[in-house]
């Protein structure tokens, strides 16, 4: 589902305010560089700007219902073009095709807009071709370059663009958007803390393995604190057969870390910060029965396991050692 202008304003208020002011004053730049980490909404913002530029209602925010807005949403507006890497790079031929397209008269107006995603992946020849394009801007043409690595772009390209920096999304912002999209209130907090990308959080929410991972982690925590003698059996029989890849093991450790941080949050009076809200009563009981120092040691033990995970340590041995550390505190 396409994100709306108001939703993007909530996620990136500074960027959207700058764009809105430029639209209202009819002072849009001929070239923009949207830079920021993955998942910060750069591509969504680019298409929202395209809609505002072509919207038949001619307001600062796209109406989303006119023919132009709807065609941009569906990806078939004849004067809006998006370029993505072909394999590992954006090649000179892709930029040349774009230039040829823009040399033609606009099919419905003189307006044209193009978006280059991952602009830092342009080959040297492609970047030089784009530079020539940017040096001869048309009043009715807007270029939007997107990048996670602005330092890899030519200085001459960066200097011809108005740079807008997209901030990493706060977990609270992602959580609100997830709940709006009907993600369970028990899952939304953990999803929003697993990634700074709204799109990645939504992907995880649809992933059956993610829900199973959460269940396995909760079970490990319960075994550690309620059936201590069974913890090593649980690691051998349940944990290791499920967590086969290191990336998946890292996800499990991240979730376990969140649980112990929740316990510490309860101890220091920050109950509103808890991620595993559905475990509140169990976590509160643990918080009352333990000291802040012990819980801090347990957090440090999980952090150390995360650090050692990608060294040449046997994963089974690592988890058994972690179980010992968590039970000792």
Automatic annotation (TrEMBL):
Report the GO molecular function annotations.
DNA-directed DNA polymerase activity
Organism of derivation: Bacillus changyiensis
What keywords sit in the KW lines? DNA replication, DNA-directed DNA polymerase, Nucleotidyltransferase, Transferase
InterPro entries in alphabetical order: DNA_pol_HolB, DNA_pol_III_delta_C, DNA_Rep/Repair_Clamp_Loader, P-loop_NTPase
One Pfam family name from the record?
DNA_pol3_delta2
Q: What is the lineage of its organism?
A: Bacteria, Bacillati, Bacillota, Bacilli, Bacillales
Q: Does the keyword Nucleotidyltransferase apply?
A: yes
Q: What is its EC number?
A: 2.7.7.7
Alphabetized PANTHER family for the sequence: DNA POLYMERASE III SUBUNIT DELTA, REPLICATION FACTOR C / DNA POLYMERASE III GAMMA-TAU SUBUNIT
* Leading EC class: transferase
NCBIfam families per UniProt: holB (TIGR00678), PRK08058.1 (NF005972)
Q: Which reaction does it catalyse?
A: DNA(n) + a 2'-deoxyribonucleoside 5'-triphosphate = DNA(n+1) + diphosphate
Positions of the DNA polymerase III delta subunit C-terminal domain: 240-325
User: This protein is called what?
Assistant: DNA polymerase III subunit delta'
């Amino acid at each position: 589902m396409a994100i709306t202008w108001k939703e993007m304003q909530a996620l990136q208020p500074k960027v959207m305010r700058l764009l809105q002011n430029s639209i209202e004053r009819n002072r849009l730049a001929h070239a923009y560089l949207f830079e920021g980490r993955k998942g910060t909404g750069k591509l969504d913002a680019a298409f929202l700007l395209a809609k505002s530029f072509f919207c038949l209602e001619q307001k600062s925010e796209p109406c989303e219902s006119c023919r132009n807005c709807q065609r941009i949403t569906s990806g078939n507006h004849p004067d809006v073009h998006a370029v993505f890497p072909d394999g590992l790079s954006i090649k000179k031929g892709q930029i040349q095709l774009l230039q040829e397209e823009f040399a033609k008269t606009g099919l419905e107006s003189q307006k044209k807009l193009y978006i280059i995603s991952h602009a830092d992946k342009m080959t040297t020849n492609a970047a030089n071709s784009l530079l020539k394009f940017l040096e001869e801007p048309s009043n009715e043409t807007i270029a939007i370059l997107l990048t996670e690595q602005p330092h890899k772009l030519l200085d001459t390209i960066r200097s011809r663009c108005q740079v807008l920096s997209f901030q990493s999304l706060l977990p609270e912002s992602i959580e609100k958007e997830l709940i709006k999209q009907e993600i369970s209130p028990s899952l939304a907090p953990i999803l929003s803390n697993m990634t700074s990308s709204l799109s990645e959080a939504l992907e995880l929410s649809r992933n059956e393995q993610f829900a199973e991972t959460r269940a396995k982690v909760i079970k490990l925590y319960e075994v550690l604190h309620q059936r201590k003698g069974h913890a090593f059996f649980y690691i051998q029989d349940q944990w290791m057969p499920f967590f086969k890849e290191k990336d998946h093991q890292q996800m499990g450790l991240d979730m376990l870390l969140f649980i112990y941080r929740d316990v510490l949050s309860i101890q220091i009076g920050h109950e509103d910060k808890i991620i595993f809200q559905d475990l509140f009563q169990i976590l509160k009981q643990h918080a009352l029965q333990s000291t802040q120092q012990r819980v801090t040691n347990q957090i440090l033990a999980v952090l150390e396991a995360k650090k050692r995970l990608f060294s040449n340590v046997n994963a089974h041995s690592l988890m058994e050692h972690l179980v010992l550390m968590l039970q000792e505190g």
